[in-house]
Design brief:
Layout (H helix, E strand, L loop, with lengths): L1 H23 L4 H5 L12 E4 L5 H12 L3 E4 L4 H10 L10 E2 L8 H17 L4 E4 L15 H29 L2 E6 L12 H21 L4 E8 L2 E2 L19 E2 H13 L4 E4 L4 H10 L1 H20 L8 H4 L6
Parallel strand pairs: 1-2, 1-4, 2-3, 4-5, 5-6, 6-9, 7-8
Helix pairs in contact: 3-8, 5-6, 6-7, 9-10
Amino acid sequence: MQVIHILALLFFAAFIALFYKFLTADGDFTLLSKGTVKREEIQDKVIWITGASRGIGEILAKQLATLGAKLIISARNEAELERVKKQLVGKHAPDKVMILPLDLTSGEDKLREAVQKAESFFDGAGVDYMIHNAAFERPKTTALDVPEHSLKATFDVNILGPISLTRILAPYMLKRGRGHFVVMSSAAGKTPAPGQAVYSASKFAVNGYFHTLRSELNRKGIKVTVVCPGPIKTPSTPEVSTSSEKGSAERRVSSERCAELTIIAASHGLKEAWISYQPVLAVMYLVQYMPTIGFWLMDKIGAKRVEAAAKQGNTYSLSLLFGKKKDQ
C-alpha cells in the first residue's frame, strides 16, 4: 500500500510539473523538446527569405546570418532591404548577402525571373531553404465587413504568391533531390479567428497546400515546415491596454523568440510548429484534439473578440470567456 501511495505522489508531482510547463510554454511540446538549433543544418546553406525588410523576416535574417547562412533577402522595398543587409553579421554577411526585390503579386513571369536569379546566386548553388514570410493582414473586422479589395490583396499575398513561387522553385529543388520550404502561417490557420476571417481563411489555405505538397514530395527530398505563431510582439505592434483593462495588455512572444523557435523547427525538420503563450496555445490544442470543445469556446468569445478589437482592447484575454455579459 505504501508503494502505491509513493507512486501516486510521484505521478501527481509529474502531472503538476507538466501542467506548469504547459502554462508557461511559448511553443508546442515537440518544438520545445528540440532545445537548440542544429547549426550544421543552417551553416553555409542558401536561405531565401521573403518579407525580409521588417518584422519577423528581418529578425530571421539577422539570426540566420549569425548562424552562417548564405542569405537572399526579398521584399518590395529595396531601400529597406539595404538597411537590413548593413545590419547583418556572420560568416557570409553582410558582404555576400544578396538582395532580390520581389513583389509576390507581380505575376508568374516576374516570379520566374526572381527564381532564376536566386538559383544563380552563390555560383549557382541553388536555394536550400525557401522561407515564405511575406504576409498581408488588415485591422480586425467582422467576416461580413471585409471589402473586396482587402479580400483580393490578402489572398494574392498570402496564398497565390507563395504557391506560385513554390511551383516555380520546387522543380529546381527536385532536380537536386533536396529542398526545404518553411512557411510562416499563423494560429489563425489552425483555429477560428473572430475578427480575422479572411486572414484566417488565407492561412488555412496555405496550411492545406503546403502539408499536401510535403506528402506528395517528401520521398523526393522535399521538406516542409509550417510555423503557426500566435500573437507576436514586433516593433510595429501597438500596446493594447484600455482603462477598463488595466494590467491586461496582450502577452505576446517576442519576434526574436519567434524567429529562434522557427529556426529550431526548420533545422530539426519538424512538419509543424506552434509558437504562442497561453491562452492561444491551449485553444490550438483544444481545436486540434477536442474540436467540439474548441469550437464551442470560440463561438462563445467570437462576438466579444470583435468588439474588443474595435475598441483596441485585449483580443487574447481570458476575460472574453469569463467576463460578464452586457445588458441587451
